[in-house]
């Protein structure tokens, strides 16, 4: 079993990780992530067009999450454009805070809701090429 295989938390509930490749997994596209094991941050260059302030905020969110909780934390887009946060940990990582991870995912989601809605809109317009209905 790979080092990344372990339990996974997401906004939608617990799922089993199955050795997903970086940037891919169940149709999701990873926007960014941080890895406490390798002490690295990843940003998908496909989204280089995002404002620098947003990229900086995403970097801070990911790194602080892994500093506090441990494991691997990613922010990704689902195929429909919704933003999802996920966290993985190695099976032998006994210091990983599983309860804290779920609480922190919900806190980040609540505190950064407007940013995540904007990211979702960005993805739907610039990646999925959806037309905006401005007459609502």
Quick synopsis:
The protein has one domain.
Give a description of the structure.
- There is one protein chain.
- This protein has one domain.
- By secondary structure, it is α+β, with helices and mostly antiparallel strands.
- Residues 1-25 have low confidence and may be disordered.
- The chain is elongated.
- Strands 2-1-6-5-3-4 form a 6-stranded antiparallel beta sheet.
- Strand 1 (7-10) and strand 2 (15-16) form a beta hairpin.
- It has 3 helices and 6 strands.
- It starts with 6 loop residues before the first strand and ends in a 10-residue tail after the last helix.
- The chain has helices at residues 52-68, 98-111, 113-126; strands spanning 7-10, 15-16, 29-35, 40-43, 72-77, 83-88.
Biggest β-sheet strands, sense, barrel: 6 strands, antiparallel
Compute the number of structural domains.
1
Question: Per the principal axes of the C-alpha atoms, what is the gross shape?
Answer: elongated
Helix content: 25-40%
Put simply, the count of helices is: 3
Class of secondary structure makeup: alpha+beta
Low-pLDDT runs: 1-25
Number of strands: 6
- Distance N to C terminus: 50 Å
Output mean pLDDT.
84
- Give the DSSP E fraction (strand runs of 2 or more residues): 15-25%
What order do the helices and strands follow?
EEEEHEEHH
As laid out across the biggest beta sheet, the strand order is: 2-1-6-5-3-4
Measured on Cα atoms, how large is the radius of gyration? 15 Å
């Amino acid at each position: 079993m790979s080092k990344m295989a372990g339990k996974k938390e997401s906004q939608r509930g617990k799922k089993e990780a199955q050795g997903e490749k970086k940037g891919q997994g169940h149709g999701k596209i990873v926007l960014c992530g941080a890895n406490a094991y390798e002490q690295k941050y990843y940003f998908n260059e496909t989204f280089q067009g995002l404002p620098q302030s947003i990229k900086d905020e995403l970097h801070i969110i990911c790194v602080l999450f892994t500093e506090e909780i441990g494991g691997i934390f990613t922010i990704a887009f689902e195929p429909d454009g919704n933003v999802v946060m996920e966290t993985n940990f190695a099976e032998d990582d006994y210091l990983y805070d599983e309860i804290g991870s779920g609480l922190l995912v919900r806190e980040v989601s609540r505190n950064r809701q407007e940013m995540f809605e904007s990211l979702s809109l960005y993805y739907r317009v610039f990646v999925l090429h959806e037309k905006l209905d401005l007459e609502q």
